[in-house]
Every structure is written in C-alpha cells, then in structure tokens.
C-alpha cells in the first residue's frame, strides 16, 4: 500500500516511531523499501555522499530530479521527500518552478531549509498542492553563515527561536519537519508542541521518526562521521539485516542512545 503523509500523522498519534533513510538510486531505494523503510529522502547530502563536494551548496535541481526519478522507480510505494537545493527556493517563484520539477520526477513532498522567512513560500506551495517538509536546527545549506556543522539551539534565545520557527512553519502549512542536531530536551519540546510529525537526526529518541544518511548507516561516510551516526552494518551480516536492525532500534527507542544524543 502507498505510504502517505496521513500514515505519518497516524504514527505520531499512536506513538509508533518510524525509521526513514536517504536514498539516491533505484537499487538501494528498492532494497530499503523491501526491508521496511517506508519514508525515503533524496537529500542534497548527495552533493557530499555521491558527488564528493565539501558541502551541499553545489547541488542543482537537475541532480535532485535525476535521483528522485530513480528512487521513485525503486520504491513506487514509499513516501518520497526531495530536497530543494541551495538557492532553488530563494524566492517563491523559484520555489514553484523547482518544486514542479521534483514533484514531476516523483516526489511527494519538497523539503526546504529555514525558519519563519519561508512561511510565505510554504503557504503558497501548499495552496498549489505541493506539500512541504520544513528543515530546522542544523541547516547545512547555511554552512557559510553557521561557520561549522554544530548543534543548534544550545542557548535560551536560539532555543526559543527554533520553537517559534517550528510553530510558524506548521501554521504556514508545513506537513512535516526534519529537525537536525538540537539538544534532546529542545527536540522533545518541539516534537510535543507540534501536531505535525517531526523526523529527527541528531536529536535523540524523542522525535516521532528518525532519519539517517544511508552512507552513515552503512559506515562508509569517510572522515567526518557525525556523533549521532551509527554504523548498523558493523554487527550485521549484510545490508538487508543492517536496515532491519536500524528499523527495530528506532521502533524500540534503542537508537539513538545517549551516546548518539546531544544534551
Ligand atoms: O540532505 C539530507 O540528506 C538531509 C538529511 C540529513 C536529513 O537533509
């Protein structure tokens, strides 16, 4: 059966924690879906994991569209999120044009990084039948503002700003939030405050779902291994059992454990 955004709302309501993964091609998408991953993301992390750049800023909309159509063919029934890459949604008009490209490539939702400034764009996209997933906390497209990839929301002001951004995105019509690298307690407040599902990465086991970059899960990331990442292949016989282990540990709350969580 097709996984839809309604399933994610239901999972949130019933406290059924779900596991999501990035995927960029047909074969991995098919394998992930067949092992039980129902939510996939064609992330602009592909700029680093597939293309070898130092950041996500070099990714183009045509790259996302190309990988989205491949992933869609591999997992026709998954709920498929696709990133709008750097500068492709800097104005509402650009967002419309580029959202159309990735939706026609097979995405179910587009993911945009940023807070309150995106509300107008989110409202307009939603009104035009393009569901939006917000992305808050560590937003890698802002690396040149942030200076380095680090935990966000550590002080009172930045924590309050993240909470108000999350509420603003939901009010504007966002259907889902990815929350990246924020302390456990703040992630808990945001997850329980919002009625839309929150998918965490580097937020502890308090969010409604978890997402990992597939290369982190398989332990093939290279030098920069984020603290929240876990190599599930290490104690598994093969990729399929690593995926099943990831799903089990997310559902039981075993992953992310304290060692993968920021306080
Ligand atoms: O681009 C990506 O893969 C992402 C995940 C880290 C959530 O945004």
From TrEMBL:
Subunit composition and interactions: Homodecamer; pentamer of dimers.
Record's cofactor remark: Binds 1 Mg(2+) ion per subunit.
Chief localization: cytoplasm
A matching Pfam family: Pantoate_transf
Name of the molecule in the record: 3-methyl-2-oxobutanoate hydroxymethyltransferase
InterPro entries for the chain: Pantoate_hydroxy_MeTrfase, Pyrv/PenolPyrv_kinase-like_dom, Pyrv_kinase-like_dom_sf
One MF term in the entry's GO annotations: magnesium ion binding
Active site as annotated: 180 (proton acceptor)
Metabolic or biological pathway, per its Swiss-Prot or TrEMBL entry: Cofactor biosynthesis; (R)-pantothenate biosynthesis; (R)-pantoate from 3-methyl-2-oxobutanoate: step 1/2
GO cellular component: a single term: cytoplasm
CDD domains listed in its UniProt record: KPHMT-like
One GO BP annotation of this record: methylation
Record's function text: Catalyzes the reversible reaction in which hydroxymethyl group from 5,10-methylenetetrahydrofolate is transferred onto alpha-ketoisovalerate to form ketopantoate.
UniProt-listed Enzyme Commission number(s): 2.1.2.11
Location(s) in or outside the cell: Cytoplasm
Cofactor list: Mg(2+)
């Amino acid at each position: 059966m097709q996984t839809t955004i309604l399933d994610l709302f239901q999972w949130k309501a019933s406290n059924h924690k779900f596991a999501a993964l990035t995927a960029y091609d047909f074969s991995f998408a098919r394998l992930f879906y067949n092992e039980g991953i129902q939510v996939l993301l064609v992330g602009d992390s592909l700029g680093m994991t597939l293309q070898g750049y130092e950041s996500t800023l070099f990714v183009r909309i045509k790259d996302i569209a190309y990988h989205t159509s491949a992933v869609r063919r591999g997992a026709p029934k998954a709920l498929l999120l696709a990133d709008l890459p750097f500068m492709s949604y800097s104005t509402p008009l650009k967002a419309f044009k580029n959202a159309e490209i990735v939706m026609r490539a097979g995405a179910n939702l587009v993911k945009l990084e940023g807070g309150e400034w995106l509300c107008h764009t989110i409202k307009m996209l939603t009104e035009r039948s393009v569901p939006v997933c917000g992305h808050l906390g560590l937003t890698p497209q802002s690396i040149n503002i942030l200076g380095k990839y680090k935990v966000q929301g550590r002080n009172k002001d930045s924590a309050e700003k993240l909470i108000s951004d999350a509420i603003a995105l939901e009010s504007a019509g966002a259907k889902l939030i990815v929350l990246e690298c924020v302390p456990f307690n703040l992630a808990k407040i945001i997850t329980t405050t919002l009625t839309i599902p929150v998918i965490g990465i580097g937020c502890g086991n308090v969010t409604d779902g978890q997402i990992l970059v597939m290369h982190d899960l398989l332990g093939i990331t290279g030098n920069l291994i984020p603290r929240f990442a876990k190599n599930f292949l290490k104690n598994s016989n093969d990729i399929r059992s690593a995926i099943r282990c990831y799903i089990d540990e997310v559902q039981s709350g075993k992953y992310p454990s304290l060692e993968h969580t920021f306080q």
